[in-house]
Design goal:
Layout lengths: L8 H7 L1 H4 L8 H12 L23 H4 L4 H13 L5 E5 H13 L2 E7 L4 E9 L2 E6 H7 L7 E6 L3 H4 L1 E8 L6 H15 L4 H12 L6 H11 L3 H11 L1
Antiparallel strand pairs: 1-6, 2-3, 3-4, 4-5, 5-6
Subcellular location: Mitochondrion
Keywords: Mitochondrion, Transit peptide
GO biological process, one term: protein-containing complex assembly
C-alpha cells in the first residue's frame, strides 16, 4: 500500500473495518500503535519463512577462529568481498555505533520506516529480537496480525566487537516483496534513526515507543527526505517507470 498523502494515513486506518475487530477497537492513534507493537512482537517467533535461514549464525558464514588472526580492516574486506556478488544487504558497523544502536533498542525495540514507492510511501515496522531486526510491511500486520511474517531480517554479529571493534551485519529478504535496493533503504534508516547524534531524529523513535499518542507519521517521511536516503531509490524507480 503506497501512501501518497501521509497526513491522511492515520484516519484511513481507523476507518478500516479490520481495525474495528481488533482489541483496541477504532480508538486513538496511541492505542493503534500499541496494538501494532503487540502484534509485531510475534516477528522472529514465527516458523522460518521462505528465503530465510533458521539460526543464521556467524560461524555458518565463515570460520571465526581463522579471521581472529586478521585485523579489523582485513575482516571488513573479507566480509565485503564475500557479499559483493550476492543479492543482499551487508555492512561492517563500528563497535561504538552498534553499542549506541543496541542500547537504544533495549528501551525502544520497535519503530516505523518509510519506503519510497513510485507514488508515495509504504510503511514498514521493525522489531528487534535479540540481535536480529525483523521488518514487515504495516499492511501485513494490519491484515494478518500476529501471523504476519518477516519480509526482511537484518542479522547483527557482535562476536568480534570486543576484540576487533566491529560488528558484522547481513540480511535476508523475501524477494517477492522487496528487492535489494529497497532492503538497503530500510537498513539505512536503522542507522538514521537509532545511531543519530541529532536529538530530534532519535526523539521520533522514543515517541513511537513511549508516547505513541504524540507520534506523527509525516515526521518519519520528513526525516527520510531530509537525509536524502530515499532520493536515490525514488530516482531508480522513476527511471524504471519510464
Amino acid at each position: 500500500m503506497a501512501v501518497s498523502d501521509p497526513a491522511a494515513f492515520e484516519s484511513r486506518l481507523e476507518k478500516r473495518s479490520e481495525f474495528r475487530k481488533q482489541p483496541v477497537g477504532h480508538s486513538r492513534q496511541g492505542d493503534f500503535i500499541k496494538c501494532v507493537e503487540q502484534k509485531t512482537n510475534a516477528l522472529g517467533k514465527q516458523s522460518v519463512n521462505r528465503g530465510f535461514t533458521k539460526d543464521k549464525t556467524l560461524s555458518s558464514i565463515f570460520n571465526i577462529e581463522m579471521v581472529k588472526e586478521k585485523t579489523a580492516e582485513e575482516i571488513k574486506q573479507i566480509w565485503q568481498q564475500y557479499f559483493a556478488a550476492k543479492d543482499t544487504v551487508y555492512a561492517v558497523i563500528p563497535a561504538e555505533k552498534f553499542d549506541l544502536i543496541w542500547n537504544r533498542a533495549q528501551s525502544c525495540p520497535t519503530f516505523l520506516c518509510a519506503l519510497p514507492r513510485r507514488e508515495g510511501y509504504e510503511f514498514f515496522v521493525g522489531q528487534w529480537t535479540g540481535t536480529e531486526l525483523h521488518f514487515t510491511a504495516l499492511i501485513n500486520i494490519q491484515t494478518r496480525g500476529e501471523a504476519a511474517a518477516s519480509q526482511l531480517i537484518l542479522y547483527h554479529y557482535p562476536e568480534l566487537k570486543e576484540e576487533k571493534g566491529i560488528v558484522l551485519m547481513t540480511a535476508e529478504m523475501d524477494s517477492t516483496f522487496l528487492n535489494v535496493a529497497e532492503a538497503q533503504c530500510i537498513a539505512n534508516q536503522v542507522q538514521l534513526f537509532y545511531a543519530t547524534d541529532r536529538k530530534e531524529t532519535y526523539g521520533l523513535v522514543e515517541t513511537f515507543n513511549l508516547r505513541p499518542n504524540e507520534f506523527k507519521y509525516m515526521s518519519v517521511i520528513a526525516e527520510l527526505e531530509q537525509s536524502g536516503l530515499g532520493a536515490e531509490l525514488k530516482c531508480a524507480q522513476n527511471q524504471n517507470k519510464t
